[in-house]
Every structure is written in structure tokens, then in C-alpha cells.
């Protein structure tokens, strides 16, 4: 992997396996050149990448950056499935978010926490007790994230696997077979529409029931029930699974050690905050489009330009975080990270993702206190792409006891 040269002509190597395995040296080198840099995507599209924490916070709440894709090139409108919070501006964004927000309130999610614990324990019981390798993503993190978000949404059991396949197919087709995207998109839309039409059988407290009620009261259009459900399912699956797997890899390859988490599960919450900062499951915030000129330092982002805010890069900005590449559980500024974004588009599911990761990692450590990688970390494959950062697989084995501890890093 080459480090960036002149920012105006640099390629953002989102398909380079070495870059996806560790993008931080690239971002650090780029950040030393400029906090906002002009880059080129593999498609040839020129975009602005924001790499400094203070710039990121400012731009994430700047109303001059729209979330509505600009269509001056005559491109066809996006499918209705993608007309959701990530492609809306106020006031429609505020209306849709206000409908969803009660489903993600601290009160609702605290009540849901025992169910998350039950799902975690059930998955752990299915993992064989021998020392044969198993893939954390397919045996644990992926199924957990899928089950949690489906239960919260109220997806009937008989369509969960079909929806999961459709979401996976759409992710792969974006990179491998773009000609298949329209068909997969329509299939997902039709499947979710069919679920919405089963209103009478939906759990009354579910997100789907809430959306259907908002539709019936005229708060949101009918097709938005489908698109908002799609957004929650897609984001809920990937963000939580990536957070658990990325964080686990960090713990298994660097101090502090995994065994100490088994002995001190009360520190899981602080640990998750540092893992969110260090191993952000969202590498970039989704695209924003300048609707007016914006001056940042000596740079001017012109109206019509596309902007991506680097969440992972901002979370390791040395101007915002002391020793930014180190895992430090006593870090008082750790919770100010941007792993879930900032401003009106901040991730609604942030509390839920934290709950899942905290319970999952603590229970996994208690169940397998000597867990270790089954292959060298350098052999692990990462998914390509711009927005998310996640492993394709994470093979581990139970391991043997006797590891060192990291008690010196734990707050007194």
C-alpha cells in the first residue's frame, strides 16, 4: 500500500486489502498534509475527505452540507428503499427521526437488555467446547446482531433468513455485480412491504408497529415504513457485528489482555468506548453534498462537491486524543469520539450497539477466558468499501490459560 502523495491526485485505496487491514497510517500521513483533502475514489469521482476531529465535528452539523444526493448529472432517482434518514434533510428528516426515536430511547433499550443477554448466552452455548477453531462472525457476532435487530424491529421468524440473504446479496452486489443491484433492491422492498402488510400480527411494541401507526396517522408516507425498516435492519446488523469483531481482534492481538476482561467484566463499558474510538466500525460518515461554498482552513469546498467525514481518522487525531493509537481505559476524553457520527444524523442505534458489544465481549471473555486467534492477524481478510470497516471472518480457538494481565491500565 502506498502512502498518499499530493492530496489533489491521491487515490483512496478502498479496495486495497492492506489499506483496509490498517488504514490509520494512510490517514495519519494524509492528515499531516491537510485536515481536509481532495481525493479520488476508484470510480474516478473526486471527493473531499475530512480527517481532523475539530473539522469533522463542525462539518457533521453544518447545514450547508446536504444529505440529499445532487442530481445535476441527470442520474435516475434512487429507489424508494433508499429514501431514509441517511438521504434526508430537515424538515422531512426531523419528522422521520421523531417517529423512530422512541424505539431507541434509553428506557426502551434498558428493558430490552435482558433479551440481549439471553441471545448472547444462547449463542455461546452452541459453540463447541473443544479447541477446534470457530468463526466469531458466523457463529456469534453476526447471528447476535441479526437476532437483536430483528426482535427490536419485529421481523417475523419466517422471513428473517430471507431478509438476511437479501441484505448480504445487496452488500456483495454493490462491489461484485452492480447489474444485480436493482433486482435485489426490489426484492428486498417487496419482502419488507409484505411484512408491513401483516400489521395485525406484528408485536405491538415493535419498531414496525410504531412505523405502521405513524403511516396510518399520516406522519410518514407508506413507502417510508419500508425504507426506514430497511435502514434499521441494514445498519443494525453490520455496525454491531463489526464493533464486536473489530474490538475482539484488537483485544486478542494487543494488550490489555483478554483474560483480564473475564476477571473484571465491570470494565466492559469503558473498554467498548475505547474500542469504538480505536476500531470504529464506521470508517466514514455517509456522503454529504455541499449546497454552498464552505471554507475550512485554507481550503474551499465548492457548492456541488461531495464530502466524506472520516470518523475513524478523526477518532485518532492527536490534536483531540493524547496517544491516540493506544488503548487506555482511563482516558477521560474517550467518550467524545465520533464513532456514531455527530449532529442531527448521529446514529440512533448507538445505545443499542453499546449494549450488544458490552454484553457480548464480557460474556465471551467469561466463557472463553483464554481465547486466541486461530490464524495470524495478518492473514485475516477485511471487507472492501468506503463507509464501513469489518472483517470477512475471524477464526479463533479456546486457547490455553496463563496470559498476562492488564490491571495496570484499569482505572483504580
From TrEMBL:
<dbReference type="GO" id="GO:0020037">
    <property type="term" value="F:heme binding"/>
</dbReference>
<keyword id="KW-0349">Heme</keyword>
<dbReference type="GO" id="GO:0016705">
    <property type="term" value="F:oxidoreductase activity, acting on paired donors, with incorporation or reduction of molecular oxygen"/>
</dbReference>
<dbReference type="InterPro" id="IPR017972">
    <property type="entry name" value="Cyt_P450_CS"/>
</dbReference>
<dbReference type="InterPro" id="IPR002397">
    <property type="entry name" value="Cyt_P450_B"/>
</dbReference>
<dbReference type="InterPro" id="IPR001128">
    <property type="entry name" value="Cyt_P450"/>
</dbReference>
<dbReference type="Pfam" id="PF00067">
    <property type="entry name" value="p450"/>
</dbReference>
<keyword id="KW-0479">Metal-binding</keyword>
<keyword id="KW-0560">Oxidoreductase</keyword>
<keyword id="KW-0408">Iron</keyword>
<dbReference type="GO" id="GO:0004497">
    <property type="term" value="F:monooxygenase activity"/>
</dbReference>
<comment type="similarity">
    <text>Belongs to the cytochrome P450 family.</text>
</comment>
<protein>
    <submittedName>
        <fullName>Cytochrome P450</fullName>
    </submittedName>
</protein>
<dbReference type="GO" id="GO:0005506">
    <property type="term" value="F:iron ion binding"/>
</dbReference>
<dbReference type="InterPro" id="IPR036396">
    <property type="entry name" value="Cyt_P450_sf"/>
</dbReference>
<keyword id="KW-0503">Monooxygenase</keyword>
